[in-house]
Amino acid sequence: MLNLGLIREEKQPHDNRVAFTPQQCQWIMKHYPDVTITVQPSTWRCFTDDEYRQAGIPLSEDLSHCNILLGIKEVPTEKLLHGKRYLFFSHTRKKQPHNRRMLQAILEQDITLIDYECLVHPDGQRILGFGFFAGVVGAHNGLLAYGKRTGQYSLVPVHRCHDFKELINHYFGAKLPPVKIVITGSGRVAAGTLEVMGLLGIKYIPPEEYLINSYAYPVYTQLKAGELYLRKSDKTYSREDFHLHPDQYDCRFLPFVTATDILMNGIYWDERIPPLFTWSDLAKDNFRIKVIADITDDTNGSVPCNLGDSTIEDPVYGVNRFTQQKTTPYASDTIDMMCVSNLPNELPRDASQYFGDQLMKYVFDELLKTESETVHNATIAHGGQLTERFNYLEDYVR
Ligand SMILES: NC(=O)c1ccc[n+]([C@@H]2O[C@H](COP(=O)([O-])OP(=O)(O)OC[C@H]3O[C@@H](n4cnc5c(N)ncnc54)[C@H](O)[C@@H]3O)[C@@H](O)[C@H]2O)c1
Fold it and tell me: Which residues participate in NAD(+) binding (predicted)?
């Protein structure tokens, strides 16, 4: 018998997402007679307690009978239950200082920690992530900001919509000016931005044509890593080599800054990868980009004028192109930056459903097995010890 518990998100500020929707819970209980699900009540979850109740899913404050507890964000140490098997995003594998105490408590309390982020397919691709809806919301927010800046159209903020379906209804009849949009990346985030392009009927143009032509209707192009980076020595690109030695590559984004109104950035980035452009490029007269939806969202990262996160309530700030200072947006010398770090929380019902679908498809049966390589490889702590794979965290917890 497997007793699953969906825990209430306790980390501040409260996250509104959940691992399984009421309908998904119902489906699981119907198809897996040996599995029960109990939901800890919550007033801030995107699905209400009543929605679970109506789906026939029991609610209980006490989850001590559960053998697996599913959350989303880190669990405050005082809320951890001794000896349980937990799945959530622990953000400990890079030795994040703010989660050190939590991992220590997990070890002290004999808890098994399986980290969603470490669950991967055999080819190394991550199984779970919220990137798709980050891409959807980020693209929408970028367009909304451009509409505010130009005064040419207006869009409803996503977080005012009940769900994605309602957002799509708002797109009916939306007419955009002949704007040029560049999308970077090819992962889940990029897929979400492409979804919005499709829904709004924005036309795809190959990069070479996009660079030299003007259009009487809205268009976008997409730059994947292979189109963005070239090895300095021989002007080639190999994915494997780039991932190993990104510092040996040049970035080819610059021509696009003179041909683009909105940048939607969804490319993977770390410190060794060259940025898309520099501050001095930004100060030049021919720098045409007016709005950047930096969905990747690394402060001073692939987009150097990302000066830190913005919030769902106040998603856009301005950056003065010459003084490099943060200011109010939509002024003549500003580039307007959308740098929300928790975009999927604007569409929590859909983001949760998508997450639950992936969890169901690729992880659930693994959890039921006594031995699973997928689960084993994502297990950070077990029986009061770090697992072999995560032994490198020893100095972090000691
Ligand atoms: N703002 C938000 O709310 C939000 C939400 C989710 C994700 N994100 C960020 O967006 C970015 C993209 O996320 P995603 O979900 O599309 O990722 P993804 O895992 O779906 O795709 C990442 C892409 O980067 C490439 N990649 C992976 N490892 C790489 C490496 N070492 N070097 C170079 N390229 C590599 C992959 O080939 C893939 O094409 C990430 O930085 C992520 O943190 C932001």
Answer: 187-188, 268
% the chain with pLDDT above 90? 99
Cis peptide, bond prior to residue 177, ω within 30 of zero = no
Between strands 85-88 and 180-184, the pairing is: unpaired
Q: List active site positions.
A: 73, 91
What is the ipTM, given to two decimal places? 0.95
- Supply the pLDDT for residue 115: 98
Pick the residue whose CA is nearest to atom 11 on ligand 1.
296
| Residue the block writes with tokens 């951890």 | 80
Task: Categorize the per-residue pLDDT at 263 as very low, low, confident or very high, splitting at 50, 70 and 90.
Answer: very high
Q: What is the mean pLDDT of residues 155-160?
A: 96
User: Between the CA of residue 235 and those of 146, 156, 208, 250, 251, what are the distances in Å?
Assistant: 35, 44, 17, 9, 11
pLDDT of residue 59: 98
Element (H, E) at 280: helix 279-282
What's the angle, vertex CA 126, arms to CA 124 and CA 128, rounded to 5? Answer: 160
Domains of the chain: 2-128+348-397 (3.40.50.720), 131-346 (3.40.50.720)
Is 268 a known ligand-binding residue? yes
pLDDT at residue 1 tops 90: no
| Residue nearest ligand 1's atom 23 by CA | 187
Whether 65 shows a pLDDT value over 90: the answer reads yes
Cβ contacts of 80 within 8 Å, gap of 6 or more: 86, 102, 105, 106, 109, 111
Span from the CA of 61 to the centroid of ligand 1 (angstroms) = 36
Q: How many residues are present in the chain? A: 398
Give the H/E segment covering residue 203.
Answer: strand 203-204
Over 90: is that where the pLDDT of 173 sits?
no
Q: Which of 128, 133, 268 to mutate to test the pocket of ligand 1 (most atoms within 8 A of CB)?
A: 268
Q: What percentage of the chain's residues is helix, strand, coil (to nearest 5)?
A: 35, 20, 45
Cα 186 from Cα 264, distance rounded (Å): 12
Atom of ligand 1 nearest to the CA of 294: 1
